[in-house]
Design a protein that fits this description.
single chain, alpha/beta, Leucine-rich repeat, LRR (right-handed beta-alpha superhelix), 6-stranded mixed sheet, 6-stranded parallel sheet, 2 helices, 12 strands, binds 2-acetamido-2-deoxy-beta-D-glucopyranose, receptor, transferase, LRR_dom_sf
C-alpha cells in the first residue's frame, strides 16, 4: 500500500470502530421496532419500545441476557393485532416467544426457523392462517410448540418429527388436513393435541391404512 494512503485508512478505521458497536448492539432493537410498526396496539403495551435507546433491554415485555441479547418476548394477552413480521427471525438468541391470546393474523413467518435457541413458541389463540412452516423443524432446542386455536391449514410438516426435544405440541382447533406424523416425539402426543381439525387423519396404526381426506 502506498504510504500516502495510511492517514486515510486510519481515519476510516477510527470512524468504523466508533460507529460499529452502536449499530451492532441495537440491531435487535431495530428488528423489534420494525415488528412494532406493523402491529396495532390499542392498549399501548408497546409504548416503551423506543428505538433511540442503546438496546431494547429496558423495554417492557422484553427480557435480555447478561450480554444484552433478547431472550424473551412476553406479549401474551396484550390485545395486539396485525401480522408478525419476518424481522422476528433476527432475534437469534430468543428462547421464549410468548404471543398467545391476541389477534395476530397472516402467516406464521418461516424466518422463525432461524431462532436456533428457541425453547417455547406460544402463538395459540390468534388468527394465524396458512401453513405451518417446514422451517420450524430447524428449531432443535424447541420443547413447547403451541399453535392451537388459529386458522392454520395444510398438512403437519413431516419434518417436525425431527424435533427430538419437543415435549408439548398443541395444534387443536385449526383447519389442518392430511395425516398426523407418528415418528419421533409424535409417538407421545395425545389425540387432544390435534382435536377439532375436521380433515386431519390419525397416524397409521397396526397396519391399518388411515382414510385419506387429502389436503
Ligand atoms: C382491545 O382493543 C379493542 C380495540 O381494537 C378495544 O375495543 C378493546 O376494549 C380492547 N380490549 C381490552 C381487553 O383491552
Ligand atoms: C373441540 O370443539 C368443541 C366444540 O367447540 C369444544 O367443546 C372442545 O373443547 C374442543 N376440543 C379441544 C381439545 O379443544
Amino acid at each position: 500500500m502506498a504510504i500516502w494512503l495510511l492517514p486515510f485508512f486510519s481515519v476510516l478505521l477510527l470512524v468504523l470502530s466508533a460507529t460499529w458497536p452502536v449499530i451492532s448492539s441495537n440491531s435487535e432493537g431495530d428488528a423489534l421496532h420494525a415488528l412494532r410498526t406493523k402491529l396495532s396496539d390499542p392498549n399501548n403495551v408497546l409504548q416503551s419500545w423506543d428505538p433511540t435507546l442503546v438496546n431494547p433491554c429496558t423495554w417492557f415485555h422484553v427480557t435480555c441476557d447478561n450480554n444484552n441479547r433478547v431472550i424473551r418476548l412476553d406479549l401474551g394477552n396484550s390485545n395486539i393485532s396485525g401480522p408478525l413480521g419476518a424481522e422476528i427471525g433476527q432475534l437469534e438468541h430468543l428462547q421464549y416467544l410468548e404471543f398467545y391470546r391476541n389477534s395476530l393474523e397472516g402467516k406464521i413467518p418461516e424466518e422463525l426457523g432461524n431462532l436456533k435457541n428457541l425453547i417455547s413458541m406460544d402463538l395459540y389463540e390468534n388468527n394465524f392462517q396458512g401453513a405451518i412452516p417446514k422451517s420450524l423443524s430447524k428449531l432443535k432446542s424447541l420443547r413447547f410448540l403451541r399453535l392451537n386455536d388459529n386458522k392454520l391449514s395444510g398438512s403437519i410438516p413431516r419434518e417436525l418429527s425431527l424435533l427430538s426435544n419437543l415435549k408439548a405440541l398443541e395444534l387443536s382447533n385449526n383447519d389442518l388436513c392430511g395425516t398426523i406424523p407418528s415418528e419421533g416425539p409424535f409417538s407421545s402426543f395425545p389425540p387432544q393435541s390435534f382435536a377439532n381439525n375436521t380433515r386431519l387423519n390419525g397416524p397409521e396404526l397396526q397396519g391399518l391404512a388411515p382414510y385419506d381426506f387429502g389436503c
